[in-house]
Amino acid sequence: MHDNEVVAVGPGPLAFDDVVRVARYGAQVRLTDDAIAEMAASRGRVEELAEADTPAYGVSTGFGALATRHIDPALRAQLQRSLIRSHAAGSGPEVETEVVRAMMLLRLRTLATGHTGVRPATARVLESLLNARLTPIVHEYGSLGCSGDLAPLSHVALTIMGEGVVRDAEGRLRPAAEALKEHGIEPVELAAKEGLALVNGTDGMLGMLVLALHDLSRLLTTADISAAMSVEALLGTDYVFAADLQALRPHPGQALAAANMRTLLAGSGVMASHRDGSCTRVQDAYSLRCAPQVAGAARDTLAHASAVAAREIASAIDNPVVLADGRVESNGNFHGAPVAYVLDFLAIAVADLASISERRTDRMLDVARSHGLPAFLADDPGVDSGHMIAQYTQAAIVSELKRLAVPASVDSIPSSAMQEDHVSMGWSAGRKLRRAVDGLTRVLAIELLTAARALDLRAPYAPAPGTGAVVAALREPVAGPGPDRFLAPEIEAVVRLVESGAVVAAAESVAGPLA
């Protein structure tokens, strides 16, 4: 992915990869002519309502529990400014730039549908902010995931007004007014309904979901690689991964995970070394034998979450919305439950995938269960501790992942004087999933590091070509077995290999494409 790619934003849905290109890699965006036409058409209807005597929510009334007040036309510009200033009430640590950019892009796409009634000029400012790589400062806390991600989106809308604080393309903290002026971006004085249209969406939680789906797709393949290496290093059998056995339980994710493991283990000298009839074990431990079942369930969870994200990214979320026949109607589509549920579901799958990975690592370090490997894979056990404490690190992360797997979406707390009396907590579900994805990355990195060391210790028997290529990739930044070394930098080096996709690329360079 390159930052010189241009992503067209129109009334239709965006591809997940386009969201990642803009959010993470700085790709430019361009509103399509269709989007401009749709916005201009619906804006006319909003302006009719603004001039009418009949109150219309979000156009000529207050918001939330204050919706009963009809706002005089002379005060409506102030109404929009007040909405954004008061709702930009986030607190806590700064949210990552890629999350904010994903949120901005997804809100722009909803504006482009023409169902929100904003002026094209207002959407153009959001487009310009993305292209100038000016990122509003958004804070960790503030969204209940209902009526949209109100506080996070309000911090973005504040920037559109020329207020608040941004980070520029170089990462410097700047007053928004100063940064916009430098880039020739004219702030907007929000007109009727525009403030509400900018903040009433699920874009923050959806952005975090799309980014997590992208990262987990790579991590699930990595998990198959690390599992295969552990099975090989522990002198396990690959017979249990046979296609006909897997077909007896036809879950699609399980079939893909087992196929990956068969591909990765093909041609292993280590596996061949214990197929001479001398092995007396009848079956392997669950963490080896059931690897495709657990990883497969995680894959199927990912597929379900992707289907939900695809529907959400094709949605037009606002309240009220402008319909094709010109009606402007209140609705409840801003409720984040569909997104919140799958964010939580993924956190459960992540925790379990990390848990089985940690169990395999522990087996390689235990002299009673590792089938001939030295204790803790140490060079001189007792003098050296090997990977003993690397497993502690894994265990600490897995314990944290179990806490992060507790669903946020089952919680609700009423707000706005009981008008908004049931909320999704989808933003919170997204925040904890991001931490969980990082944790899984680290757990898999430690399994890879440990399995590579164990495979080296199985010499002169050679690993399979696919797993051997991964060992070779790890050996570039990390030396092979030997006396104890400063281990934290080695773990971080493998974390970077996992994050970059280099581990998957190394395996595929020899074994061919993996699912």
From TrEMBL:
Keywords: Cytoplasm, Histidine metabolism, Lyase. Contains an active site 4-methylidene-imidazol-5-one (MIO), which is formed autocatalytically by cyclization and dehydration of residues Cys-Ser-Gly. The keyword Cytoplasm applies. InterPro entries: Aromatic_Lyase, Fumarase/histidase_N, HutH, L-Aspartase-like, Phe/His_NH3-lyase_AS. Coiled coil: none annotated. It is an enzyme of class 4 (lyase). Its main location: cytoplasm. It catalyses: L-histidine = trans-urocanate + NH4(+). Pathway: Amino-acid degradation; L-histidine degradation into L-glutamate; N-formimidoyl-L-glutamate from L-histidine: step 1/3. There is a cross-link at C146-G148 (5-imidazolinone (Ala-Gly)). The modification 2,3-didehydroalanine (Ser) is found at S147. It holds the Pfam family Lyase_aromatic. Its EC number is 4.3.1.3. It is found in: Cytoplasm. Belongs to the PAL/histidase family. PANTHER family: HISTIDINE AMMONIA-LYASE (PTHR10362). This is Histidine ammonia-lyase. It comes from Microbispora siamensis.
